[in-house]
Amino acid sequence: MKKGGIVALLVIAVAVAIMMVTLGDTSTYVTFQTAKDNPGVEFHVVGKLLAHKPQEYDPVKDPNYYSFYMADSLKNEMKVVYLDAKPIDIERAERVVVIGKAVNDSEFHAGTILQKCPSKYKDEGLVGTKSSSY
Amino acid sequence: MEIQYVGERLWLGNLGYLFVTLSFGAALLSALSYGLSIRPAWAHWRGMGRGAFYVHTVGVTGVVSVLGYLIANHFYEYHYVWSHSSNELPFEYMLACFWEGQEGSFLLWCLWQALLGLVLMRVARQHESGVMLVLALAQVMLAAMLLGLDLWGDDAKELGMNPFRLLRHEMEAPIFSQANYLSMISDGSGLNPLLQNYWNVIHPPVLFLGFALTIVPFAFLIDGLLTKQVGASALAALPWTGVGVGILGLGILMGGAWAYEALSFGGFWAWDPVENAVLVPWMVMVAGLHTLIIYKNTGKALPFTILLLALSFILILYSTFLTRSGVLGDASVHSFTDLGLSGQLMLFLGLFICLFLAVFGINYRHIPVVKSSDQLSSRELWMFVGSLLLLVAAFQVIFSTSIPVMNKVVNALYALFNIDKTFAKAPPVDPIAHYNQFQIPFAILIALLTGAAQYFKYRKTGKDIWKTVLRSVLISMPITAAMVWAAHIDKALHIALMATSVYALVGNIEILAPLAKMGKIRFAGAGIGHIGLALILLGSLISNGKKQVMSRNDAGIDFGEGFTGDEKVQNVLLPKGKPVKMAGYFVTYHTDSFVAPNHYYKVEYKKVDEATGQIDKRFYLYPKVQINDNMGLVSDPSIRRTLGWDLYTHVTSVPTGEEKSKWEEAEHFTVKIGDKIDYKDYTVEVLGIDLAPGPPTGIDLETDSLYLTALRLRVVKGDKELEMAPYFIIQGSQLQRPAAVSDLLGLTAFFVNIQTETKDFVIALSAKTDQSPDYIIMKAMMFPMINLLWLGSVLLFVGSILAAYRRFSELKRRSN
After folding, report:
1. Cβ of residue B656 closer than 8 Å to a chain A Cβ
2. Are B745 and B720 in contact (CB under 8 A)?
3. How far is C-alpha B199 from the chain's CA centre?
4. For a disulfide at B76, which of B82, B454, B531, B719, Cβ 3.0-4.6 Å?
């Protein structure tokens, strides 16, 4: 076999190894039920913050503790604890993604929270105009 | 009946749209004519191609000018103007408004590509037809993004987005039923405060110029394949590839600087999909540049070069698709939404992939291939290995970034074959660790090759080469050891990366030294660029690897189950005026000030010599926060820069308005005239009933209210004293007791009742809870040696441009 062939094989081998490791590193989008069934395993959960349920953030007591309730795509609710400052305007997010793990049946500890803000282009109405005539 | 709207300047939008159609049509004509002119017999079509491209450029410039004029003049009847700008924006941010939206950023890209076309038309010589064909085709696709044609009879599915859409067509609101609605819209919804940063004024033009430049080598190679002179085309593409590497690299690093200074990512690079999407084409382009140099010097590696440079352009299209189609929706902190162009972006991408594969496939046999076996001591072998490494490293980044695309594709396949499964892979939980585990080993090897490869000669090098290589190893070892010791680097991979980066630095300085002595600065481009790369690696390694979160406040806090404590405890509360100790500094939040639209918080950092009590070091930082109607609190860090380290301070939260005005539950007192009562820190004396016929001064009653009487109180708190008069009114048939409120003293008083038998009065007092709590919650981080990174970025750019300049002049000499 020629050198070129060996190099090509090597590159393919490395690429395959990368794909395997990457797929092993990936997390999964799940519901809270799956997270509860696998406590300690990190997942992504997509859902909505429940604005009518109690939220806790008292920066004077602890600026790194924020908790809220969230409903996942199947409307299962769970308390989420986030050890960081409360993300700004999280109540207004159309959708939140919490990345973390269930520690027991009642609490989900998020390491990262992603917020999807309502699109600038869709059904926002005229929020932001300073006109007050309507 | 149609409403006759008043005050709209519709002719401007019509003019702008005319320019859009003109630029689209002219680009199409230009592409066709240039396409025909490739056949030598039809070379006369070239004139038409040129003319049409000029008209196209006029069209694009016209669109840009009209849109710019609309933004600068706040013509809010246009949706784009209304949604991206507002009255109080300073001029420089008007530019940022221009490219905040999709339409504007495509326009910017289109403008750069048109201008590049004008240059290429003059300098591409025998390659003009093929190069301009590709360029004009890309312009057709870009201009189509702005057409806004309703081809399917469905408003949601248009071909392109016309930037001159009217606000009243885009939104539904009752005011649009009024003919003079425009007079009621006094301001736009404004530019996203995160984008109100000078980096966002300068980095998009550079980045889009980089985007536009990736098409140039691609276009040259397509020309070469079509005319079966791919060797000559490749050589003509070489300097352009160098310029592309320099400008796109600069654009990426400027984006990093913006992220560092304004976005509070906590660093300049977070392996975010948006960042990755532009890094990958750059890495592939760098690989292509190196194999192109191999080709120039040895005649080898041409097919691989063609693949790499084509891939680099196709990856630019792919990254545009990734970041603008909404496919990354749940994977990135940036909000991407599909604006209805994803189908068109896919078409753009698909068309160019097919075009390339067809042209490459048909003409493959005309690509010259040199057969010879590579010597272990040849420069080209090691350069080739380096390019392969870059390609594989780029593959890793784009593979991980494309996980959301994989979900879509696999689920579509499941649906197609009626398999009842869903594929829901999410990106790695810790992206930084994920990418670093691959990229650090790649970087180690690439740095090693960067240091060593230039000592080898093309084809075969004599035995003494190993001595030279060994010498730089010996020089770099003690330097590495000293740096590892000084920066406390402890991870083995980090030490290895430091060693090879230092080696790359030393090796390239040794190459530059004789060139400088001989005054051959022209040849220094590669060396300077490589030194830049080595410094970028060192700077990232030290500043990120040794990043220190200063605002750790973990004493005595129970983290609860599942948290180790090293995780996210990075915020500290600073009460106003009280120093908090952080990593050797006393940090005090002093005052806040408001300069519209930003709140600035004055934060003092002080280091005190413990033995003498003398102040060693003192400085102030002013992190700012903008409270925005649409986005809530948007924070902009403040950075103390010194040569050796940066101290970064970022406000995460401030008390909200509601917390500021909380009142205690009212306390009731039964009093007589002349009584003095104590309530909290206040002394309240009852002076008597106010017998005046009207209400106390400063109070305007509504017309249906009847004033009865007021109770006069004198309130003393500390050295402040004033009179308050809570009163009774009858409103309708109800007795009302409006409160008297003193903001100065933070007290509210109510006149509750008169007990007629005892002639006592009942009053209620309520104090403000904790006179408006004033604090900030902040994060502080220390980034050591980040200046190495910035210095490296500048050198990488300067080196690439210098090398490209030399290649341009060589090319000119050869063709003369």
Report:
1. no
2. yes
3. 9
4. B82
**pLDDT reading at A124 higher than 60:** no
For the stretch B171-198, pLDDT in tens is: 777 788 888 888 777 777 777 777 777 8
- Is residue B254 a contact partner of residue B202, using CB atoms and an 8 Å limit? yes
pLDDT range class, residue A127, cuts 50, 70, 90 = very low
- Residue A49 included in any domain: yes
Q: Which of residues 337-396 of B touch A (CB under 8 A)?
A: 337, 339, 373-374, 388, 391-392, 395-396
Domain assignment present for A100: yes
Q: Which domain holds residue A72?
A: 25-116
Q: Domains in chain A: how many in total?
A: 1
Calpha distance B554→B572 (Å, rounded): 10
E strand or H helix at B587? strand B585-595
Give pairs for B716-724: CB < 8 Å, separation 24+: B716/B682, B716/B683, B716/B684, B716/B685, B717/B681, B717/B682, B717/B683, B717/B745, B717/B747, B718/B681, B720/B744, B720/B745, B723/B687, B724/B749
Name the nearest CA neighbour of B505 among B467, B442, B445, B448.
B448
pLDDT tens digits for range B268-299: 888 988 889 999 999 999 999 999 999 999 99
Structure tokens, A45: 């959960």
For residue A88, the domain's CATH number is: 2.40.50.140
Interface test with A, best of B568, B659, B775 (most A CBs within 10 A): B568
Six-digit token string for A11:
């590159």
Measured between beta carbons, the chain B residues lying within 8 angstroms of A25 are 400, 428, 434
Q: How many helices (H) and strands (E) does chain B have?
A: 20, 22
